[in-house]
Amino acid sequence: MSSKLLRGTFILTLGTMISKVLGLFYIIPFYQIVGKEGTLLYNYSYVPYTIFISIATAGIPLAVSKFIAKYNTIEEYAIGRKLFKSGLVVMTITGISSFAMLYFSAPILADIVIPSNDTTSNPQDIIVVIRAVSFALIIIPFMSLIRGFFQGHQSMGPSAVSQVVEQLVRIIFLLAGAFVVLNIMKGSLATAVSVATFAAFIGGLGSLGVLFWYWYKRKPYLDELLEKDKGTLDISLKDMYKEILIYSIPFVLIGIANPLFQMIDLLTFQRAMAEIGLTEVAKDALSILNVQTHKLVIIPVSLATAFSLTLVPSITKAFMEQDQISLNRQLNQTFQVLLFLTLPSAVGLALLSEPVYTVFYEHDLLGSEVLRVYAPVAMLFALYSVTAAILQGLDEQRFTILSLLVGILVKLTLNIPFIKLFETNGAIFATALGYGSAILINLLVIKNFSKYKFRLVIRRSLLIIIFTVLMFIAAAVTYKVLLLFLSPASTFESLVIIGICAVVGAGVYFYLGLKTKLMYFLFGQRIEKVMKKLRLKV
């Protein structure tokens, strides 16, 4: 891999990670401003918006970049430019159509998510916040195509910088807007949340401004490439879009899975809780489930999948070259890295659920309990993303559709009866079984088409589980001792508890990983460099 490509991949990964971290942690001040009711109202709009934006953009940045890179390699630069010009028109139409669909379907969505016996929720508030966020759909698809165009030319800076700027502008507008409406203008909660959801449009404008600036700076170079075009190929727009759709569908399915599961909870949770006489707590419980705890559970998932997915291109290469030894090695490493990073994070989050919830939001026993049960599901979220990506690397992305449909069917079938049996935790159990079903299908397909054997991963998994159990014991003992002096009801004392337990748990876990050489097998020279810099010996 060239140094330019490595540098570009690093820049894009860094930009994506910064954007994700910002997107995870803004919820702390936002929750302090609008509370449980406000975050739930925000979620009413953002879940359908996420689904619409996934469909409207249709995985365009990655699909377009893959298409353009393919034809730039053979110096057919005009084909990429032809797709870009046509795509801008198509994405504009797609964006406006998606905006209109979400905007005008807002009353229908509001009626669906509010149970008939709910006398406290105002459908008009939900309509307003959904319509506020829908404006972002006008520009996001258009913007995503420009990002894909730059990425196809191995120019990752524009995408990385625009992602970070988009997130920063959105969060600043979101927090400042909500605060001003509630505390200075003394406006309603619905107005404050509407301003917060409209921030997605403002963030999009910020990102678009960055991309236009990059376009202005890079256009002379892009025009020079166009002059070098061989002109030996002439591909129709129909064939172009056919190829783009084949590339993009897997990305859509991976991105849309989580919002679809959340949408099922939005549509069924409050009704199921009302049927067992828990109408009064249903709204708070849904907010805790779908917003507060979900944000926390996604943290270990983002970190683990970021490491694991970097191995997928090498899986694709090994599969295309029919190099079975290399393919097995890459798959072994991918699954082990994922498990090594996600399992202890999920277990630690479950153990420290009470102080973690207090630090991020407030001391809430229901929130702590839901987080304790929900945290292990992080493993399934990460496994689904990685196995779906591997299927794409093996060129068997068609099975991603099957696995997702099965997972959604399981979630739909079990959600209401499980909620009636286990209350809030029932929705988590249904999500776990839905994702588990999808992952099982993905693993069977991987085994069948790659001839991959899971023996080594199973052995190493047992070792990682043993390490995690020992880590859990050490952290749990420390936690129990600290509870004699500190209270998880206090934000500052919770921070102290988390810090000390994390150091003890991570210390035990990584010591065992280094002592048994497992970390060297998984991360190779990167670990040796870190150890040399820290001047440590194990």
Automatic annotation (TrEMBL):
Annotated compartments: Cell membrane
Entry membrane topology: Multi-pass membrane protein
Top-level taxon of the source organism: Bacteria
CDD domains, per database record: MATE_SpoVB_like (cd13124)
Alphabetical keyword list: Cell membrane, Membrane, Transmembrane, Transmembrane helix
Name assigned to this protein: Polysaccharide biosynthesis protein
Keyword Membrane tagged: yes
Keyword Transmembrane helix (UniProt): yes
Principal localisation: membrane
One of the Pfam families matching this protein, by short name: Polysacc_synt
